[in-house]
Amino acid sequence: MLRSLTSVAQRGRLLARSFSSIDVSKLVVERTSSPKVKVPNDKLVFGAFTSDHMLEVDWQKEDGWSAPTITPYHKLELDPACSVFHYALEAFEGMKAYVDSKGRVRLFRPELNMKRLATSMERLAMPPLDQQGFLASIKELVKLEKSWIPKGEGFSLYLRPTVIATHPVLGVTAAQRIKLFCITCPVGPYYPEGFKPVKLLAETSAVRAWPGGVGDAKLGGNYAPTIRVQAEAAKKGYSQVLWLFGDQQEVTEVGTMNFFVFLKNAAGEKELLTCPLDGTILPGVTRQSILDLARSWGEFKVTERKFTINELTAAVKEGRVLEAFGAGTAAVVSPVKQIAYKGVDYEIPLNPADKAAGAGPLAQRMWNELKAIQYGEVEGHPWSVLLE
Ligand SMILES: *Cc1c(COP(=O)(O)O)cnc(C)c1O
């Protein structure tokens, strides 16, 4: 029997009684009757193609959570007064599902994404997220979309859990209705032809986040003001912005990634450095994983502390910087070859032993190790969660 998408979605809502938690046992699934044509692996563009289905869960203050629904991918119909449109009451996550060599589906530390979404929602005065219930629902979506997960090294299904305020009232107040949803996009490796190291422009006027702000929450509202700054950096030939903060011009993050420097410190020791989670830094899952791995190796100092752009450029001039890289779910690691600050370009080494390499030895090793865990090559690793 064919039903229109709207009626399917509405039926899910109407059928749905309300619950105090997100109850995956009440999940309503409506499969598509017209599957999309899949794009071949070599034609994938990040975020440009979506799969056949989407997950939705609604919440309203009087009733609690609706039953989760998985329905054919469809447009949302929203009242133009919804506070997401006016006051940016929106938060999102970015995570990936992988198929391993045995054809099994895996997620990577998904509980950290749920915890972070809960933090972002709390910051937006939204109701407490039922992290387990939402993750269980996302797992059902990923199982249904299994055929959409492209196979091969670096390929995955990118998951975009999102929350919006659907409260149709212009008053600036806590949302009494919200919608959680999740869409998925098949994606290829960020660097299909091997690492392509990036040039960064250290930004001296615009600021991404500040103490007491929301830099540690994954909010759409943090991104809107960065688009113009990023576009201006691109016009000057730099692919990402290195965000600085404060009178001392502390180094914080790069573009949409956390930032790492591997250097020989003043005492001559090797040290992997990233700034601390002081409330202005997004607590990246990749960042945490890199810190955890590096500490588990015990081969060099691993430090979360503030450092300034002057400290970094001085270390470059003294030949003490070994590598620098960004870290995030999309690229995993993104090697840096140059940083521009106040009109001066500072060259960051990649791999002195291999001039053709697009990444330094540490960035390459991190990528190898994370990939091996994500794709289940490391058997039974606690960070890799099997779906079935
Ligand atoms: C999402 C994000 C990151 C990376 O986080 P991961 O969990 O590693 O993907 C870093 N910085 C910002 C500002 C982000 O939004």
Textual characterization of the structure:
The chain is 24% helix and 28% strand. It has 388 residues and is an alpha+beta fold. Helix 3 crosses helix 4. The two termini are 30 Å apart. The strands form 2 sheets. Strands 1, 2, 3, 4, 5, 6, 7, 8, 9 and 19 form a 10-stranded mixed beta sheet that branches. Strands 10-11-12-13-16-17 form a 6-stranded mixed barrel, surrounded by 4 helices. The chain has 9 helices and 19 strands. Strand 14, helix 7 and strand 15 (301-304) form a beta-alpha-beta unit.
- How many helices in DSSP terms? 9
Q: What is the alpha-carbon Rg in Å?
A: 22 Å
Small-molecule components bound? pyridoxal-5'-phosphate
The level of helicity is 10-25%
Which strand-content bin applies to the residues? Answer: 25-35%
